[in-house]
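2024-03-11 09:14:02 INFO worker-7 job=invfold-0412 stage=load source=structure_tokens
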């Protein structure tokens, strides 16, 4: 037994292994906004999230799940399953929405019922790219 190992008091759990990822800008949680790709800071997150970068939410279309000012952590992947929340680039704009695809139609659905889904078909899809899916988030006070 290692006598130098710290003792964890009852009722407390050790912190998970942490890593850092770049906070690279903002993402619209409303109507799409111009995407920004400048590293603003590096933030600490649990390593188990396997996130590649983070974005600050702007707007309330994903409320109450993600609120204005929350930081969402994204794992880079070119495809997501129907119903997953994805960071999607449409031309030079990016938005955070629940993603659904059926054939040649993609529907981006907000969580907040006050917003209507965004629907893209056929040639409009050539301007669309999935940046990745949300794997975690951080909420300030």
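2024-03-11 09:14:09 INFO worker-7 stage=emit residues=141
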């Amino acid at each position: 037994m290692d006598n130098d190992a710290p003792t964890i008091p009852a009722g407390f759990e050790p912190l998970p292994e942490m890593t850092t990822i770049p906070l690279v800008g903002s993402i619209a949680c409303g109507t799409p906004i111009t995407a920004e790709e400048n590293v603003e800071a590096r933030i600490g997150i649990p390593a188990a999230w396997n996130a590649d970068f983070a974005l600050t939410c702007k707007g309330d279309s994903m409320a109450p799940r993600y609120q204005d000012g929350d930081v969402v952590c994204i794992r880079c992947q070119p495809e997501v399953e129907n119903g997953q929340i994805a960071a999607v680039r449409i031309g030079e704009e990016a938005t955070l929405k629940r993603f659904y695809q059926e054939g040649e139609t993609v529907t981006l659905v907000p969580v907040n019922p006050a917003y209507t889904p965004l629907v893209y078909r056929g040639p409009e899809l050539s301007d669309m790219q999935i940046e990745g899916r949300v794997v975690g988030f951080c909420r300030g006070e």
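2024-03-11 09:14:09 INFO worker-7 stage=report msg="The chain is about 0% helix and 50% strand."
2024-03-11 09:14:10 INFO worker-7 job finished
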